[in-house]
Amino acid sequence: MVKQKKSIVLMARVLVLALLIGVFASVPSEQTFAAANKALRSKVVFNGDKESDAAWMNNNYVMQAGYKKASKIKKNMKMSAKVYVPAAALKMNGDTVHVDAWIGLENSKNGNYVGDIRAKYTVMLIKDGKKMRVALWDPAKEKECKPGKTASYKKSGKYYVITINDMPLKNVVYKDEQTSKINTKTKYNLGQGIGVTGTCSRTSGYVYVDDLKISGVTTQKITFNKKDYKWYSGWHLDKNYSLRVITIK
């Protein structure tokens, strides 16, 4: 439990850095679109470090995509996503992949970055003895909780697919680790972010993000099967990181 408490603090620092610099800064890459099941892909290298503070920076990969339509926001919003992680990363007892999520906000009129609304929980996929299990980590209460219908997983080929379903978002906006109330009168450009961190077995492979959805004043989706997003960007080790929209394979 102490390890989890330490990890959530370090994770927050990584996410804030990524959001402040990367959310709305990237120019969309040119892509060719075909009628296939596509997703946003990141090359990842989990170095096998599960204990040190540096593991949370070195093994963290941020993937983000922007919705096409500006929208107002409100309290009690929810988000969904699918995250494909390499099964080879989760083969030893205690191996864990952590998934954080948030919505980035940019003022639609002046383009200024406003902050981000974070998911209430971190999703964890854990190798527990001979079994796999999914759990939620509540940073407010500093404890693990049952996922209910909010998170689940399944094995699909060489990947574990983590499904986040209607994850509740917090009712505050974060910027520079300060919080402010949600402004329900302003329209925002919205970007959905997924942070994947592996405190797990040494693995080199791919992580895919698919089927993004945000439910609030309006419901918007990104499937990546067509150009239904405005932009995308990646972040790793304080640098922009190349991503691709490509068929899952």
How would you describe what is shown here?
The chain has 2 helices and 18 strands. By secondary structure, the chain is mainly beta. The strands form 3 sheets. Strands 2, 4, 5, 6, 7, 8, 13, 16 and 17 form a 9-stranded antiparallel sheet that branches. Strands 1, 3, 9, 10, 14, 15 and 18 form a 7-stranded antiparallel sheet that branches. The longest helix is centred in the N-terminal third of the chain and has 21 residues. The protein is globular. The N terminus is likely disordered.
Secondary structure topology:
Blueprint lengths: L1 H21 L15 E9 L8 H4 L1 E7 L11 E9 L9 E12 L5 E6 L3 E7 L2 E8 L4 E3 L5 E6 L2 E10 L3 E4 L2 E4 L6 E12 L3 E13 L3 E4 L8 E6 L2 E2 L2 E5 L2
The average pLDDT score comes to 89
Radius of gyration: 17 Å
Shape: globular
- Largest sheet descriptor: 9 strands, antiparallel
Strand-pairing-aware structural class: mainly beta
* Tally of DSSP β-strands: 18
Order of helices and strands: HEHEEEEEEEEEEEEEEEEE
